[in-house]
Known about the structure:
Layout: H1 23-36, H2 43-46, H3 48-52, H4 54-57, E1 60-66, E2 75-81, H5 84-105, E3 110-117, H6 130-144, H7 150-163
Parallel strand pairs: 2-3
Antiparallel strand pairs: 1-2
Amino acid sequence: MADSKPPAKKDEDRRVYGMVSIAVPSERVTRPVFGKHGFAGGALVVDWPAIVGSAVASHTMPIRIRFPPKERAEGTLIIKVDSGAFALEVQHLEPLILERINGYFGWKAVARLKLMQGPLPEAPRKPKPAAVAAELDSRMEARLAEVEDPELREVLTRLGRRIGGPLTKS
């Protein structure tokens, strides 16, 4: 009778029980997506604000890195900039940005920047704490009590909740 051993499991098929850092499985999922754009594991995208600073990061977003054929150094980083005025600022800051990026990687990964102008995706809004929202609702209701038309009052209430602040008198 033949020796029946279970087939060896691949690393990807291995089940992990207990608590695991989210970085391990998320890297396996994100690596192919980021790899298509030249980002190894997406570290540059994730750490962009820490690399270039929050002032620059709030107006820019790395899109992809293009390397010369069969090279992984001295690439061109394509950056999306939200306005033409800030694109000019990024051009002036290019040597500093390149120094910070290459310092982050530890080698001359990026040799130049290419700028694209366009809108950036909106940052997710942080929900307001429940206590602040309740206070805003009570102040808004007090001001809207003066409105006689119930339909107008309802519309103004929805508007006030949508913008998240009390309505002011004009």
